[in-house]
Amino acid sequence: MIVCEDTYAKTPSSHLLKKKVLFDRIQGNETEFVEFLTSQFPIFKAYVSASNYKPKQFEVRILYCSRYSIPVEHKELCTDVRFIEYPLLRYFTSLVKTINKTAKFEIFKFLGLNYRDIGKARIKGRASAASQYPGFLLPEAHSNFPPGFKVLSFYVDPESLLERVYVLRKDSWEEPDCSYQRMLVAKKIRSMRRYLNESERVYVNNLIVTLPPSVRLSDELGKKLLIEKELTEIRSVKIELPDEFNSVGVIDGQHRVYSYHEGSDIYESKIRSLRQCQNLLVTAIMYPETVSDLERTRFEATLFLEINDEQTKARGDLKQAIELIVRPFSSTAISKSIISGLSRRGPLRGCLEEHYFDDDHKVKTSSIVSYGLKPLIKTEGEDSLYSVWGYKDKQKLLEASEKAVLDNYVQFCVKEINDLLLAAKLNLSAEDWRVMDKTGGLLTPTFVNGFIVCLREIVRFGLPRGEEQYKKNLEKIARFPFRNFKSSHWKQLGLEIFKQYFQ
Q: Same structural domain for residues 294 and 153?
């Protein structure tokens, strides 16, 4: 059961906080809530009576939908509430249009629902089950992967795979520092479904996936395999895949998998039978138990880029997303993390474009990353924020070894930039502090980069920093002719702001 609340309020925070009392009551008394609805609404009572579920077997999820962005600090007050803002709504709309009913498995994941929570498994109370497939365990030396990585090859029916796979798509709802793959292309999916319908032939090339640690390998007699020594020859095995949603990660081949989706087009009648045929060749990677989730994601992202650079050159923004995973200490990755921080907290909250499904009316960030932030956050030079960062172990950032150090530097940079921008915002009108369009507004990449250039000069000359100091310096900033500086003139803009208000 999904309890859904939606709002078009431009500042939804107060609306959300009013609803929190109700949300807390529902989450603390889910069974009583279902019984209350049954007693109050005849239509709902009829539905429950006709179903096979008892009130205590209902899974209750709260969904809060907002046309405009909600501050992170207010989201954090509402634990276990799922939030759908406009970019995410557009993502799910696109996903459903592309893979139709099969999108339900990703929606289950978004709602935090496991296989045991849905359908017959919920009624039977079955904790876990598995499906078995014959396959081969390949010698480790043939893969050139790190020690302990196992490689398997087997055939699987598309239906079973669709229930289990997940894809860490860039621009989806997943954490941005763990997502890297392209969005599904609807035109490509339609073309592949037409191919399946007309040829009834299997795809020749194999899928590349990762398997969860819960996969069980056994010999032909069903005895569990304990593989302690490195294999030198191919070994026949039985592979037990757990019946769990979102347990098999797709590294390469997501379009081939999803071309078998449960749809409503003219090809569905034939593809329905193909979905149940065991005809997809899979190459699967099993990690050693000691490999962390982050290490797995980095390995997958690197392998994905290697494969796709050989086939079709990955776009620049896709490579930036992968760099955030593979090389999180690089200047590009740090800059993208700062963009994420600026877009969630501070005067630019909700104004920066973070991904494909954002509103068109947001400030583009690619030039801010390349020409604004990277020179500001570099680890050498007197005009870098690194030079004034007071962290005692900041040299560890150069060693690229500790994420806590990286996180501290990102937070420091976000605060330093926000201090200057907030001072500017407080001295400008609300009409000026919005994304530029034909009717007005000042926020553009040139505007943001200009203030970043100004901040570099403040650091270089060792001038006093901080929000209060900046507010005094920028008291008359409303008179500044921002519109005289266009496109790539951010350096001139920044130097002129510095000259007039700080020098």
A: yes
* Domain assignment present for 186: yes
Tally the domains of the chain: 3
d(CA 288, CA 226): 13
Assess whether 291 and 341 both reside in one domain: no
Look up the domain containing 352 and give its range: 327-501
Buried b (16+ CB within 10 A) or exposed e, 34-49: beebbeeeeeeeeebe
pLDDT tens profile 159-173: 999 999 988 765 556
Closest-CA residue to 215 (of 237, 186, 193): 237
Instruction: Tokens for 145, please give them.
Output: 């992967």
SS3 label, residue 63: strand
Please state the φ and ψ torsions of residue 90, each to the nearest 5 degrees. -65, -35
Higher pLDDT, 306 or 328: 328
| Residue 323, pLDDT above cutoff 80 | no
- The residues near 379 (Cβ < 8 Å, ≥ 6 apart) are 386, 397, 398
**pLDDT score of 142:** 64
Taking the C-alpha atoms of residue 343 and residue 71, their distance in angstroms, rounded to an integer, is: 10
Quote the pLDDT of residue 430. 93
Report how far residue 193's alpha carbon sits from residue 199's, in angstroms, rounded to the nearest whole number. 10
> Does the CA dihedral 321-327-330-334 come out positive or negative?
positive
Burial class (CB in 10 A: 0-12, 13-18, 19+), 250: buried
CA–CA gap between residue 404 and residue 410 (Å, rounded): 10
- Domain end among 102, 121, 140: 121
CA distances from 262 to 242, 249, 288, 414, 465 (A): 21, 20, 34, 44, 58
Give the bridge partners for 43, in sequence order: none
Please tell me the pTM assigned to this model: 0.78
Indicate if the alpha-carbon torsion angle 142, 145, 149, 151 is positive or negative: negative
Q: How far apart are CA 218 and CA 133, in angstroms?
A: 10
